[in-house]
Structure formats: C-alpha cells, structure tokens
Amino acid sequence: MRKTVFVDMIPDLSEVMAPTHEKYRSKRNLALAEMVTQDGSSWTERSCPACRSATPVRRFSQAIIPFGKCASCGTIFARKLPSQAMLDGRRLADQPDHDKDEEVGAHAARSIQFTSLTNWMRLTAARHSRTIGKVLDYRFSTNAAGWPFAARASGVANKWYFSSVRSPEDQGALEQLARELQEFLPDTVTIFSELDRFSDPSALLQLIKENTKSGAWIFIAAACADGLEYELLGADSPSFIPLDRLNLFSLSGLTDLAVDIGYDVIEVATPGRLDAVILQQYYNLLHDETTPFWPKFFRDADKDTLQNFQIFLQRSLRSGVLRLVMRHP
Ligand SMILES: [Zn+2]
CA-CA distance, 39 to 41, in Å (whole number)? Predict the structure, then answer.
C-alpha cells in the first residue's frame, strides 16, 4: 500500500473560518437541533461505523447529539442517528440552488479543491498505468455546484455521471445508487466528502462492491479523525460540523473496513492543507493553555514553520483530511 504526500502551499488565513463558513456551520447546527426536537424518538443508537467494536467509546462531544471516539480504531462518530431518508430530506431542504457554493466556502478555495482532486485521480491512474473511463461520482455535486463542470473540463475521465441527493420519497438512497451503478456501469466511483455524512457507510461501500465489476476503482476523500486538529481541539475544531461529520473515520478504521468488505486498498494519504493554519488561528484567538507547548508553538510559527509542519503532518498521516484508493479485486 502506497502512502502519498501532497506538498501544497499553505493557504491564506482568509480561507479558514471565513464568514461564509461560520454561517454555514451555524445553519447546519440549527438544522440538527431542529431534527432532534422534531423527531428525536425515531433515532437509533449505533456502534462504531468502522469496526463495529463493542469496546468502550470515549466521549467526544455532547453538543446537540452525543458523539463518541471508538477506543478500538479511533473513529469519531454520532452515537444516535435519524434515518438516511430524514438526513437526505433535510439536506435538500437546506440547500436552495442559488447559493450552494457560497455557503460552503469561497469560489477560489473550491477551484483549488476540484483541481487537487482531479490531479490526484490523474496521477494515481498514471502511477498504475491505468486509464479512467467512466466515473460515477457519488453526491459530491449536491454541495459543490461547480464540480461537474470542473470534473469534465479536467479531462481525467472519458465520461462522468453525477449521482445527487434526490427526494427520499422517490427511492431509498441505496436503491437509487444500485440502479445508477447498474445502468451506467462505471469503472471508477468517487466518494468525496460523503462517507462523513452517510448513516451507514459500510452498507454504502458494500453496495458499490456488489454493483461494480472486478477491477473497478473507488476514490475516497473524507475528514480524518487522526488529524492533529481533532486531537488538540476536539469538538471545538472549526472543521467539526456535526451534521456533516456523522462519521469521522480514522485511517486504520476505514482501511480495515474496506478490507473486511473485500476491497484491496491501494493507496492512503492525509493530504490536508489547513491543520497548521487552523491551529495557529485558534491559539491566536483563544488563550487555551491546557497543553502549553502547542499554543506557544503555533503563536510563534512563521509561514515557513507552518508549511514544514503541515508537510510533517502529511508524511506522518496526521492531517485532518484523508484520501484512500481501493480496488474491487
Ligand atoms: Zn472502531
């Protein structure tokens, strides 16, 4: 299994905790609070979505709904969930077409993200002397209106199909995906930022395996519980938006889950660019001295130090974003 490092430039502080991000975070937290109040009785308890371990779960957050950290694999997860239909219905209701992208970040930051994803796919395919033909993208375009255009324009694949969140009254999420996979017959599936939000990620990965051919590749990008940001800031981390982070996999938790389902894991990486900048901003704004080393380290760090530290986090697989490539054997 290959471990990849992505050396990108450190972004400007304005990219982190932008007013649009804070507005989006507040809106999603309000949506979650409303869902709990309206229909909390139908929510179900669950164990670790990665290893389903029965070992004790450490408390991660009690805000709005309880989140735990699996003592066995380190995955962070919501311990109570509504149905996928309820999650999908709320997601559609909260996303009017005209401001999808404005809500989740500045346009420039999104373009960088799209290019980074397509470059990753292109380089991975080239490393393995593989051509990417037909890609089914799972739901990323629901929150990233510019993604279909950017993906097609990149030329990384011959053909794309963008599966999006539909009204849960039409069809269940998994039934919809099974039909789309059978009709489109992709050789590659992309799951970007969606494992984090799905109520049963194991069932999702299982269904993709059952409905793709041997040799199909799956590219996953997700938030990563191993990130230093989550280790130091916990649920205070600005990236932790509970409704969008129902599952925060650890790299080992997700890798073991993929292997259990029967995939070959080809490549893992934690290519996050923002951990160091987020931590510096946090410690500049707040005087939290419970771990005195880190506040001083980040307050004193210049741009070179931050960049070197971010590269160190990527090399040691301790950044807050993970990428994983797996293959249907
Ligand atoms: Zn676990």
Answer: 5
Return the CATH number at 195.
Answer: 3.40.50.150
Residue pLDDT, tens place only, 114-156: 998 999 999 999 999 999 999 999 999 998 889 999 999 999 9
- CA–centroid distance, 231 to ligand 1, in Å, is 16
Spatial distance between the Cα atoms of 44 and 235, rounded to a whole number of angstroms: 22
Q: Is residue 60 part of a domain?
A: no
Look at the chain and report how many structural domains it folds into: 1
Q: Is residue 134 part of a domain?
A: yes
How many whole angstroms from 321 Cα to the centroid of ligand 1? 18
What residue has token string 């694999």?
73
> For residue range 239-259, what is the model confidence (pLDDT) as tens digits?
899 999 999 999 999 999 999
**Choice between 210 and 100, residue whose per-residue pLDDT is larger:** 210
According to DSSP, residue 40 is labeled G
pLDDT tens digits, one per residue of 175-189? 999 999 999 999 999
Domain that holds residue 221: 2-39+82-327
Buried b (16+ CB within 10 A) or exposed e, 27-47: ebeebbeebeeeeeeebeebe
Residue 232 CA, ligand 1 centroid: distance in Å: 20
| Ligand 1 ion: nearby residues, β-carbon < 5 Å | 48, 50-51, 53, 70, 72-73, 75
Tell me the per-residue pLDDT of 264-306, one tens digit each, with 9 for 90 and over: 999 998 888 888 888 888 888 876 667 788 888 999 999 889 8
Q: Which two tokens stand for residue 38?
A: 């309206």
